[in-house]
Structure formats: structure tokens, C-alpha cells
Amino acid sequence: MEAVKIALLAFASAGDILGTGETVLEIPRSTTLAELKAILEERHPAFAPLWTRIAVAVNGDLRSDETTLVDGDEVALLPPVSGGSGTGNEGAAAELPVLTDEPLDPTEVARRVELASCGAVVLFSGTVRDSHQGRRVERITYSAYRTMAADRLRQIARRLESRHPGTRVAIVHRLGEIAVGEASVVIAVASPHREAAYAASREALERLKGEVPIWKREHYADGASIWREEEALAPHGADTRASQEI
Fold first, then answer.
1. Which region, left, alpha or beta, applies to residue 195 given φ > 0 means left and ψ of -120 to 50 means alpha?
2. CA 114, CA 189: separation in Å to the nearest integer?
3. pLDDT on residue 89
4. Residues in contact with 96: Cβ distance below 8 Å, sequence separation at least 6, in sequence order
């Protein structure tokens, strides 16, 4: 049977099961996502109980099991994430990098959204806590499906700006190892009125935690570490609600 090759990406616990974060897989032509799952499950039985929790993206978009794969597709296995318009300046906030491996500077993020027409600036900084459910946390490692995560963060900002005229939104998330007390995400919202600024800031965080493929691994003082996979990844624009704190 004629075969095609796909790039298979696996994140967080899915990568642990696969034994790698990225590989090239040869599969029969016209294989569906459902059939791909069966192939992976046969090779890695630990996937079996996880398919109801794992979302699958093809070339950066969430797809159903009926999707047929073609040569060169990029398929990403996405476990639950760690949560859960124009005035002449349109799009300027979106130019700010949304993902970074460097320490975050909240003042710089806020500076990117400030406008003379905006009487309110709300700045949210989510920092790494020193404990979780009674266990002492030493650090957190954040990883992401970078292309999809960056695109979704920008879409969230644009959508909120469209819903709240005159409002500007910037969201920046840090990746890599982050120590207790350091910022993992900064959200800055500028608006002519404070109600819109508060509302957009809160919704930005809720949507980030439910829609953006970013995962965190908590490292504890006792030497153990776990992936915090708690909220199924939702299609962009779905009615998500943050169920966990940063």
C-alpha cells in the first residue's frame, strides 16, 4: 500500500509516552486521525486511556477523528492544558512577541498598549507560587506548541479589541524554567473606560488557560515533578472559563 509521511509532534505527557517530542511517521495513504490513533495505541498502549483527553491538531488547527491525513501534514497531540478595531493604531499591540524564553518586564508590556485616548490601564502579572496542594514547589517548566500558541494568543487579543472598541490588549507568556516568584504571564489592557479594561483582562486570562496549547510541569522540593494537565484544549472562541489559578 502506498505510504505518506507526516510530522508527529507530542507535547507534555503525550511526549513522555511517545518517548520524543517530534518524529516523522510513515502511514498508509488516506489514513484518518482515528486510524492514526489506533496505530499509535498499538505501538504505545499507554495512549489507550488518554484519547478522550487529548486534542489533535493538523497543521495548527484542531481536527476531528474523521480528518484524512495527507503527505507532509504536521499532526500535534495536545493533552489538557495547565488551566484551563481600528483607530489608526490597530494591530500595534499584536506586534509585541507573545512568547518568550526571557524574563518578563510588565512595565514594557504595559507601555505597548498605552494611548492618550485610554484612561485606564489594567496590568495582570501571573507569578509562580511556592506551593500546590500542600507540596512545596521549587520551579515550573513551561512548554508550548509554539506556532499554534502564538497564533491563538494574537487571535485572543484581536478578538477582545474588536469586542471593546478603543481597547488595546497585549499578552506575553514566558516559556522554559521559571523560579518561584517570577512572572509566567503578563496581560496588559488599555481602554477609555475601566470597566472594559477589567473585563478584557479577565477574559484574556480565561481564554489563554483554555484555548492556548501551553503546558506546565511542576517541580517539587521532594524531587518529584508532574505535568499539570487539567483543562481540555478548546476550539478558539469557545466559551471557556478558567478553573485554576496561575
1. alpha
2. 8
3. 42
4. 109, 112, 170, 172
